[in-house]
Design a protein that fits this description.
The chain has helices at 16-29, 47-54, 80-85, 96-102, 109-113, 126-130, 134-149, 174-190, 206-213, 230-238, and strands at residues 4-9, 36-41, 60-63, 90-93, 117-122, 157-160, 197-201, 220-223. By secondary structure, the protein is an alpha/beta fold. The protein has an eight-stranded parallel β-barrel with strand order 1-2-3-4-5-6-7-8, surrounded by five helices. The structure holds phosphoenolpyruvate (PEP). Phosphoenolpyruvate (PEP) binds next to strand 8.
């Protein structure tokens, strides 16, 4: 049976003092549950802080992006090998905010090669959903990731994040999300990766997480805004 994974994406929020308080609350409040894991993806400068705080806890940590290159003249980039040195287990790749503002695509190979688990994000815009193109868009995005990772598809985590639901307070209904997840899982199964964790992301809150996570193909969530409050994030993680 697949377990549940709940990952917080702090985005460009936080600071040493605020992080310290949030991490302490998470550590104090998280009572491990069978088949349930939680993680936080923090801004790069705070990876050392996350590693120091979470190292002895069951909470994993990761980054919000990773370079496709191993090293070299790529100003501003951070490699998978560097993230591993800071104990990262995860790296989000292809988040819609990175695609929209920074032209990112569907990387992930470098993360896998370094032993990180990429959390590969897919999701349609509102215009694409209204045009009935949701499945075509997410399958095209997933196809690009699968083509990149080749035989390693089973090592991915995939997050379905409808762009219109991120940070907007609008969320896909459990049925809408499940329909997309079922299609993604069917495609993953063709590459021997039917059991990858398929997360839903987009305005998940404590009051809607349980219904979403109860769906057959939703294996947890990628949580933005609600990951910045320990009580809210922990409630989602337990949902
Ligand atoms: C995200 O950033 O991946 C996300 C899902 O954000 P939010 O939960 O705020 O919609």
């Amino acid at each position: 049976m697949r377990g549940k994974l709940v990952v917080g994406n702090w985005k460009m929020n936080g600071g040493l003092a605020a992080n310290s308080a949030l991490l302490s609350e998470l550590i104090a409040g998280w009572k491990p549950l069978p088949s349930r894991q939680i993680a936080v993806c923090v801004p790069y400068p705070y990876l050392a802080q996350a590693a120091a705080a979470l190292g002895a806890s069951p909470i994993a940590w990761g980054a919000q992006d990773v370079s496709e290159h191993a090293s070299g003249a790529y100003t501003g980039e951070v490699s998978a090998g560097m993230l591993v040195e800071f104990g990262c287990r995860y790296a989000i790749v292809g988040h819609s905010e990175r695609r929209q503002y920074y032209g990112d695509t569907d990387a992930g190979v470098a993360a896998l090669a370094a032993g990180l688990t990429p959390i590969a994000c897919v999701g349609e815009t509102l215009a694409e959903r209204d045009a009935g193109a949701t499945m075509a868009v997410v399958l095209r995005q997933l196809q690009a990731v699968l083509a990149a990772v080749g035989a390693n598809a089973a090592k991915l985590v995939v997050a379905y994040e409808p762009v219109w639901a991120i940070g907007t307070g609008r969320t896909a209904s459990p049925e809408e999300a499940q329909a997309v997840h079922a299609g993604l899982r069917a495609r993953l199964a063709q590459d021997g990766a039917a059991d990858v964790a398929l997360l839903y992301g987009g305005s998940v809150k404590a009051d809607n997480a349980k219904a979403l996570f109860a769906m057959a193909d939703i294996d947890g969530g990628l949580i933005g805004g609600a990951a910045l409050k320990a009580t809210e994030f922990l409630a989602i993680a337990r949902a």
